[in-house]
Specification:
It is a single chain. This protein folds into two domains: 196 residues, Rossmann fold (3-Layer(aba) Sandwich); 141 residues, Rossmann fold. The protein is built from 15 helices and 16 strands.
Length: 355
């Protein structure tokens, strides 16, 4: 069985949740994992697997906006010690002796793997930005170019790429990548969707001032997650953090209100739930997720943090049509992803278009 060193971006939960789903599956087949991560990613992964804590460039969020100055400072702080951190990974590889490496939007593991001559498989969503063509408005091109530069410069040292995405834009010619449907947790797959009378709202970052007033305008009970507090305030039912409780409510809700997280949007769509998205300002990947969500007829997004009061009844009037569109699609790529990762582990690489 193989030894796998897996670098995982630690900001937010999506990267760690995806990596954990892969590790659980392949650890069950006898493979051994050692993770490199930081922040919330290290906390999530460390409950089940050994983790080496190592900083990576972060994207701090304040008031539902990317904190640009803090982001630049974080990147500079990490890069000022990049040689030291790279040596740590190389020393770790000497001790662990991985057969292959993997990365979910992590900076150091792919670079160390390239230096050591060990193949590295990327398994993130962010490379959909650089590997695919997108029909975005020209007004969004500055954000697109900035994010594409960041992905290419800091996170594109892998030898192979699996791009995981609920939307499937065309790959650019000559790109060594495969685009696949979402990877879903086993706990998601075990639940059967139903339609209750509540709405689920989730915010994983510091929210904007109008978020709770917006939720109060929804004419249904709203199960609010992300604040890790309990209590009832009118139609708002605040829930403590709980994977089981959240997924139970998600599988049985009318629709979902959230940011632009790819993981949560994918899980909602798998259960057939329309989505209202409030992408983080300045986070192009979240905008892109929200753009396709609306373009494909799965939901709507608000480009600002002060949606008009007519937004909710207009959205609810479209629910049946949104559900029909969602119901025609498949949002689970687990089988194909597992097969390709198994091939990568076995063959130390992937082929693309027969090459």
């Amino acid at each position: 069985m193989a030894k796998i060193l897996y670098g995982v971006h630690g900001t937010g939960h999506g990267h760690a949740v995806r990596a954990l789903s892969l590790a659980r599956h392949f650890a069950g087949l006898g493979h051994q994992f050692l993770f490199v991560s930081h922040g919330s990613g290290a906390a999530i992964l460390g409950r089940e697997f050994p983790v080496e804590d190592l900083p990576n460039p972060e994207t701090p969020i304040q008031g539902h906006k990317v904190a640009l100055a803090a982001t630049i400072y974080s990147s500079l702080a990490v890069h000022s010690r990049s040689r030291q951190y790279l040596r740590q990974i190389l020393n770790l590889m000497d001790r662990f002796q991985p057969d292959v490496t993997m990365s979910d939007y992590e900076y150091f593991v792919p670079r160390a793997a390239r230096l050591a001559g060990v193949p590295c498989l990327s398994t993130d969503h962010q490379h959909v930005i650089t590997c695919c063509r997108h029909p975005i408005p020209w007004t969004r091109y500055p954000g697109y170019l900035s994010m594409a530069w960041s992905v290419k410069t800091f996170f594109s040292e892998n030898s192979d790429y699996l791009v995981i995405s609920f939307f499937q834009p065309p790959l650019k010619p000559g790109v060594r990548a495969k685009i696949l449907l979402p990877l879903l947790r086993e706990t998601v797959l075990k639940r059967q969707p139903s339609e209750g009378d509540h709405v689920v709202a989730y915010q994983g970052y510091t929210t904007f001032a109008s978020f709770l007033p917006f939720l109060r305008a929804i004419p249904s009970k709203v199960m609010v997650y992300g604040f890790d507090t309990g209590g009832v305030d009118g139609n708002l039912n605040f829930q403590r953090n709980s994977e089981a409780g959240f997924l139970d409510d998600l599988a049985s809700c009318r629709y979902v209100v959230c940011g632009g997280s790819h993981t949560l949007i994918s899980e909602a769509l798998f259960y057939g739930k329309p989505v209202i998205a409030f992408p983080i300002k300045g986070a192009f990947e979240q905008y892109l997720n929200s753009f396709y969500l609306e373009r494909l007829g799965y939901g709507q997004y608000s480009p600002g943090f002060h949606p008009r009061t007519e937004f909710i009844p207009a959205f609810e009037a479209k629910l049946e049509d949104l559900r029909r569109r969602i119901g025609r699609e498949n949002f689970c790529g687990n089988s194909e992803i597992f097969a390709l990762v198994e091939r990568f582990i076995r063959e130390k690489g992937l082929t693309y278009d027969g090459k």
